[in-house]
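Shift notes (night). Ran HAP28 protein while the centrifuge was going.
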Amino acid sequence: GRKGGHKGRARQYTSPEEIDAQLQAEKQKAREEEEQEEGGEGATGDPKKEKKSLDSDESDEDDEDYQQKRKGVEGLIDIENPNRVVQTTKKVTQLDLDGPKELSRREREEIEKQKAKERYMKMHLAGKTEQAKADLARLAIIRKQREEAARKKEEERKAKDEAAMAGKRLQSLSLNK
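Came back to this:
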């Protein structure tokens, strides 16, 4: 009883030549409608002028963006939506590959973060940041403590040497007797 869905059916593809032919037919139909709207003025003119205008219209439309058929009430109501993005197709010759590429938000934030880190490190090495000032103060205190410890050690060593020398003198004096 059940028949298969549409997914299993054979697909038919349109060749590029057929698409071009359809586009040409649509353009021709649009031109004829425009001529009829003008009140038949173009139909009474000389054929050479009509031929020339058709050729120029055709090349202009190929160069410019092709406007798609309007859907629903778009043709009846002019809509001014500032948020609506109109898709424009660019030709390969119009692409600017050498120009600056617009970065995404994440890439911009990453670059800003790296620059801020570099600026902070420069300031830190120059001793202008709060943390650098605190580090330098701590280092100065540690240097003083180490100098005092070294001085005390030197004094203790000298005192020990003097005590040892005094002990040797006493020994040598007692042996000389």
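The chain has a mean pLDDT of 79. Residues 104-176 form one domain.
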